[in-house]
Amino acid sequence: MDVDIISEEENPMLHRTDIRFETTHEEATPSRLSVRDSLAAKLDKDSEEVVVHELDTKFGMRKTVGYAKVYDSAADALDVEQDHMLERNKIGGDEADAEEA
C-alpha cells in the first residue's frame, strides 16, 4: 500500500500533527489498522501514536483519502483522544485489560 501525505498542520497545544493523506491500494479498501501501520512507518513513528479518524474511498476507485492525528507520544494520544477512537485504533486496550486482571 502506497501512502502519500497531502497536507500537514502542526497543533502544538495538543502535541500533535493533523495529517490529510491519500493511499493507493490494489484490493478493497484497506483496514484502519493497516493504514495506521503504513502511515506510522512512513512518518517513522510508533503505531500507538497515530490515530486514523476517517477513510473515504469513492466507489470503484483504488484511492482512499483519509485524515489522521499523529501525536508526539502514545501518552498524549491517550490523554486527548476520545475512548471510541482509541478503541477503533486499538490503542491502550492491552494495558487496560492487564490492569483489570
Automatic annotation (TrEMBL):
Family, similarity comment: Belongs to the eukaryotic ribosomal protein eS24 family.
Keywords: Ribonucleoprotein, Ribosomal protein
Keyword Metal-binding included in the entry's annotation: no
GO biological process, one term: translation
Name assigned to this protein: Small ribosomal subunit protein eS24
Entry GO terms, CC: ribonucleoprotein complex; ribosome
InterPro entries assigned to the protein according to its UniProt record, in alphabetical order: Nucleotide-bd_a/b_plait_sf, Ribosomal_eS24, Ribosomal_eS24_CS, Ribosomal_uL23/eL15/eS24_sf
SUPFAM superfamilies, per the entry: Ribosomal proteins S24e, L23 and L15e
GO MF term set: structural constituent of ribosome
